[in-house]
Amino acid sequence: MTDPWFEDAADAKQYMGEVGRLWVVWLVGLGALAVSQGGVAVAVGVALLIAMFVLMSPLQQRVHARYGTERDARKLPPRATLTARERALRQLTYGRRPFAEAVEMRGLWGGWKAVPWVVMAATLAAAAAVAVAWLGD
Q1: DSSP three-state, residue 45
Q2: What are phi and psi of 105, to 5 degrees?
Q3: Computed from CA positions of residues 9, 13, 16, 22, in that sequence, does the dihedral angle turn out positive or negative?
Q4: Could you report the per-residue pLDDT of 8-20, keeping only the tens digit for each?
Q5: Which among 27, 26, 24, 7 is positioned nearest to 15, based on CA atoms?
Q6: I need a labelling partner for 19 at 20 to 30 A (CA). Which of 28, 42, 88, 92 fits?
Q7: By mean pLDDT, which of 13-17, 67-71, 98-102, 118-122 is the weakest?
Q8: CA distances from 19 to 11, 53, 90 (A)
């Protein structure tokens, strides 16, 4: 068993807000990209990148709080592609385990654990819509 991601229900609630904002902006941004063209699409894309950078900051701070300045967390093990810090950030950003843990810790209905799957499916659908809109002409 790995260490819990959250200290208490308030911390889990804060995480759900952080990742929820990130996911909503991501999906809205993809939708905006699907309906934009030319210079507007470039502007939307740049704005989305900046927004994602800003919205990732709380999750990056969580990873830093968990690993601090541990040198081992920044080393790349043999035959690995991600460090422990990078894996932790990936898990917090769109992993199912931290979100499920937050749902359980807050005592929410278990169906909320499917939200990461819904976001991934919506991302694939939005990406397909962007590809069709941009390449279909």
Answers
A1: helix
A2: -65, -35
A3: negative
A4: 999 999 999 999 9
A5: 7
A6: 42
A7: 67-71
A8: 12, 13, 12
List the Cα angle 65/71/76 in 5-degree steps.
105
pTM to 2 decimals?
A: 0.86
Alpha helices in the chain (DSSP H): 9-35, 38-67, 71-74, 84-94, 96-106, 115-135
Q: What tokens were used for 95?
A: 């992993």
DSSP, res 110: G
Helix axis angle, 9-35 relative to 84-94, nearest 10°?
80
pLDDT at position 1 is 47
**What tokens does 56 get?**
């990732």
Placement of tokens 């990148």 in the chain: 49
